[in-house]
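Step 1: inspect the first sequence and its tokens.
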Amino acid sequence: MSVQSAQEYYPHGFQNSSATLVEDGAAAAVATVSPGIDVKARFTDDELAVHLDKLRKQHPEFSILPHQPAHAVISQQMTQHIARINAETCLPGEENSFFVGDLGEIDNLHRNWKKHLPRVQPFYAVKCNPNPVVLTRLASMGVNFDCASKLEIETILGLGVAPERIIYANPCKMASFIRYASDKRVLKSTFDNVEELHKIKKFHPDSQLFLRIATDDSTAQCRLSTKYGADLENVCELVATCKELQLNLCGVSFHVGSGANDFSTLYKATRDARWVFDLVQNEFHMQPLTVLDVGGGFQLESFAEAAHVLNMALDEFFPADSSNNVSIIAEPGRYFVASAFTLGANVIAKRKVSPRESMIYINDGVYGNMNCILFDHQEPTPRTLHHAGAFHYFDDESTSATHSSSQQHKVSIWGPTCDGLDCITKEYYMKHDLVVGDWLFFQNLGAYTSSAATAFNGFDQQATIIFIDENGKVLK
């Protein structure tokens, strides 16, 4: 076969490669990736950066958040929960931290997804928040599921979800888990190495396989291509192995990382996927690929911009016309649940450092429901919920990251364990001089929080969750 290396023939700048771009008519960039295959792109990398910068200036609505949290009901439920707790007589654990989960917010975000990404079927990343109430709600809305382990697959199937609504999106799987997926007829599966293909051939030869390619996720907070994804220069070997083993290669997947601020990566990764689609059909003469998995990393704050760039890339490289029989799926997690959960935590101790500075200790922390600080690079924002007999949920100025005339009480906030790493914030400024028994709350803590909470040091962090529906009713 005359296929040459992607590094030599793919001059768009994937990873660290570079070459001269060829003009084609209306300034379209042409990348000759192998003999007979031309991937035409509207933008060179430099042109793309300029275009996206213009987009941000032309679309101030990108910064408008699409969510509609039920603040009145959330405040009411937090108030009622705290009012039931008698700090003088409560049993151990009754004053534990707790969540309010807003299912109406999840409904709203799903509608927003369909509005901005109508071609893309979401497969929710179960690891993000595997609460069964959340999973059931998403399933009822037609959302499918991205599972990475036997237990996650078992959980989703246990909800009555059909196996064809699951993608086993872990490129490196245990053999016993592959056999389990085969037994349960979970067919969709990702891979990025030859060794995985031989396992799949042995234990689940009917799999519908997605070749996961690496992306440039250097601007992401949580980078994934350092662990998963095949470089384009290795794609030919993987495709050839699929053909040799007579496996069903049906699509391409990628993930640009979580917390990215450069959405050119979505455009470039979609372009790279187009190259793989063309390679499979034109060079290896295999059946055309039928599914593109654009991965996850979507988050509320930047969703509108990310969706705009992704749609632009899909329209260019995978246009929705009768000749393009390609389905588009994605693996969002935090987008659906982050803003739907609010955490309440009790002040259990205080150490005065100076008249205007204190160390505050609360009953949740980085080993509990704020493990996202360590694992997910999040910075939860503390706000005063209850102080001096009054509730302050709607006081947006109860705390500040910087000193001001309104927020003069400097605090560091610590979790309950005896580990010095259990620090929520080293410096914050409060309007109120908090005391033991007061309550703080933290918004936007639905993603990668309770799913990784531990009982380290003997602190049970399986927080109570009060769920409210779209009508403000509490689920019993």
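Step 2: inspect the second sequence and its tokens, then contrast the two.
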Amino acid sequence: MSARPAARGRALVWTARLHARARRTFYTARKRKGVTLNTTHRHSGTRRSRWALAPLAVLGSALLTGCQQAQQSLSIGDMASAFNREIWVMSIWAIALSIIIFFGVSFALFYTVQKFREDKHDAPPAQFHGNNKLEVWLVAVPVVIVIFLSVLTVRSMAILNPTPDQATKIDILAKQFWWNFEYPEVKADAGGEVANGNEMLMPTRQPVALTVTSGDVIHGFWAPNIGGQRAAMPAVNKTWQVDTDRAGVYQGNCSQLCGASHANMRYKVIALDQARYDATLAAMKAYRAPEPAPGSPEELGYKLFMQGKPATDPKRPETGAASCAGCHRVQGTPAGGQVGPDLSFFGTRRTLGAGMWEGQKAEDMLIPWLKNSPAVKPGALMPPYENGAEYMVNGKPTKGYSLTDEEINAVAAYLRSLKLPEEADYWRDVPVIGASSNGGTQ
């Protein structure tokens, strides 16, 4: 039994020591003017260090932005679009009501706290059932606000969702990891519908009816400068309208996580004045891929594109090359594949890899892309054409094909020859909207 009092005594001694130490710390802090306890002092230093790191954070953000291939910003507040203007009008009411509610609730809170402070009221508070009138107001006001916002939302949906008959129609197919844009109202003279991969043309100053679907997983079509986004879902067609009053090149991205190269699934929207848009579509309608000159690299590239290359070893298909025409369409040629994006106007396009590279970088990356696209774009399903390199298909390693450097260069030369007439170059003298470092026109 003697052990228990001894233990209690030791505990009391330790408690007394702790109290004495706390008192010394407190009085020392009181005597030092302008200096608080150590714990607060450390927090102050942390705040200063955070402010000191702020310029580094800004610099890091700038450097990361500079590392991106697409030097073009997105804006949901682009008032050149009637879609965005309508959303903005609705948002003004929602923002205004939110501000009123915030200040109203804050005033009521601080007024109540100040009026009924304990030091001003010594008597116990009166007990009562409640305030029926106040409770009615607290229920009625939110209901009225919600109904008002609902009416505004339904009004905006009624304006934006229907697509007028005179709207320009564009069908969009999304697949891992690229886009294809077809113009169902424009039939090509060479057969089929006019289409373009990864670059969408649209007219200004009139509604454009977009119909989007997916060929594999769920994607998201998002070009906020021209309007709202929609999910691209397999076996589902979604139609809505977008528009812009300003000619220019706009950035578009996939907004749904869809695989390894989701961030590399981009596209461009090129909005042209109505007269130039009509002239460009007319040139696309009449377009036929040019005939390569005999003995030229383009002729060799054409043959490889259409027919592929027989395997030197029948037991090893990777020693040959499959034709590109099995997956891609080129207007005015036997190539009618639908597995990959349309390449009819490849030489006019200024992006590569679904917007992964732009301008001169796209030109520089064409050979590496043809040699081994999965190596430069994760998840790409286009097979490599370099020494039978392996790539992944549905999670399984698969052998690619083999072309020599001369043959790769010949295919690249043929692709570059697939150009619209100079007067139909839809990139010429069109301003890039939201360009950061590049600026200017394309």
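Step 3: confirm your contrast with the notes below.
The longest strand covers residues 178-187. The two ends are 93 Å apart (CA to CA).
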